[in-house]
TrEMBL record:
GO terms for molecular function: acyltransferase activity, transferring groups other than amino-acyl groups. The lineage of its organism: Bacteria, Pseudomonadati, Myxococcota, Polyangia, Polyangiales. Gene3D superfamilies: 3.40.630.30. InterPro entries: Acyl_CoA_acyltransferase, GNAT_dom, N-acetyltransferase. Residues 8-165 form the N-acetyltransferase domain. This is GNAT family N-acetyltransferase. PANTHER family: GNAT FAMILY, PUTATIVE (AFU_ORTHOLOGUE AFUA_3G00765)-RELATED-RELATED (PTHR43792), N-ACETYLTRANSFERASE DOMAIN-CONTAINING PROTEIN (PTHR43792:SF1). It comes from Polyangium jinanense.
């Protein structure tokens, strides 16, 4: 469960990633809907996530996104079961100081190609709060389009989707992974 893009390496999130995880999940600018208040809470959240991942089918889960040049974890991306069994859900959370450099787009495009080619996903979806403009822009850069609406954790979300044919036709597809 790894993939590589030109600047990034994505590999399974591990319990030893707790420091980097807290840097991301403890930051209210990133986890705006409920950042972890301290390192202990982040450690519990990471444990909870890793327990969920253990129950997911092979190839799905949470990836730590490592900047190859520095070896530093700059974010995480998620490929997980969704409420509709034929879809898989995408997620992304990046350290605040990594924003604006195209890392989230690069990691997510790599994840899209990984999902369709290596996990044989049928369709990818993302639930996004419409006011989350950076996430909406990221979804648009992936070529995702709105298929509906859904209330999640009391917040209205738009549901965006991308199928394999659409992804394969995107100009970024051939370069999405370093070694497909
Ligand atoms: C959503 C999130 C991952 C997007 O991060 P981001 O930094 O805006 O996205 P990217 O890393 O793809 O960067 C894109 C920006 O970098 C710029 N950029 C700079 N260098 C670039 C490069 N080499 N390649 C591509 N884009 C580049 C782009 O122009 C773009 O800027 P623009 O939107 O002003 O045009 C981030 O805001 C985040 O972690 N948010 C909080 C978590 C969250 O809300 N998750 C989703 C819950 S549903």
């Amino acid at each position: 469960m790894t993939f590589e893009t030109s600047r990034l390496l994505a590999r399974p999130l591990e319990v030893s990633d707790q420091g980097a995880f807290h840097r991301i999940w403890g930051d209210p600018r990133v986890i705006w809907w409920g950042a972890m208040p301290d390192a202990a809470a982040s450690a519990r959240k990471l444990d909870e996530i890793l327990e969920r991942v253990r129950n997911m089918p092979a190839g799905q889960g949470w990836f730590a996104v490592v900047e190859k040049a520095s070896g530093v974890i700059i974010g995480d991306v998620v490929l997980a079961p969704y409420i509709t069994a034929s879809d898989l859900e995408l997620g992304w959370h990046f350290a605040f100081d990594s924003w604006g450099q195209g890392y989230a787009t690069e990691a997510s495009r790599g994840l899209v190609r990984y999902a369709f080619e290596r996990v044989n996903a049928h369709r990818l979806v993302a639930d996004i709060v419409p006011g989350n403009l950076l996430s909406m822009r990221l979804a648009a850069r992936l070529g995702m389009h709105r298929i509906g609406d859904r209330v999640r954790a009391t917040l209205p979300h738009v549901v965006l989707a991308l199928d394999r044919g659409e992804a394969e036709a995107a100009p970024w597809w051939p370069d999405a992974l370093v070694s497909p």
